[in-house]
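User:
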Amino acid sequence: MSILISDQGSARRALAIQRLAELNESEVRGIILYKNNVELKQSVECVTRTGPDGGALVAVLEAAEQLENRLEEALGAVGLSISKFDALEQLMQCERPLTLGDLAGRLRCVRSNVTQLVDRLEADGLGKRGTCSEDRRAIRAKLTSLGQERHAAGVLAIRAVQQEIADRIDPAQRAELVRLMRLALG
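Assistant: Predicted structure:
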């Protein structure tokens, strides 16, 4: 329920005041919560877009989110996610299977996440678990031939997104963007 109080006429004000008097406590709380949420959103919007950085932080975060979504979409078209591609990439870079702990370290995540990720790779036929000859307690992950093929398709999908960016921004602008990002990050 919304009530509009306008300065355009005393009749409208009188009607609005009468309607406010008829509201029960729950309706009043709802209006107050709604108004507070709107004010909070406007306040956050104002703070993030008008701070000392002139909105640069928010612009970078929004661009990163859009690029991540675009990558997810491109990789999804070849049956991968960013997480799966990252794991395949790490496994491709190694000459031998990686322990799940080593894979977790390379992906900068906890081992339980890698266990679930390797579960998904196995379910998709992209990876396989095996034992470790040096430590029978350790489990190693390796790519299957399908995993290698899917990795190659993922590389092509990522290259297509990179090309989209290259087509929109000339080389000098890209170099300046990279320079400015490095400068901003220290």
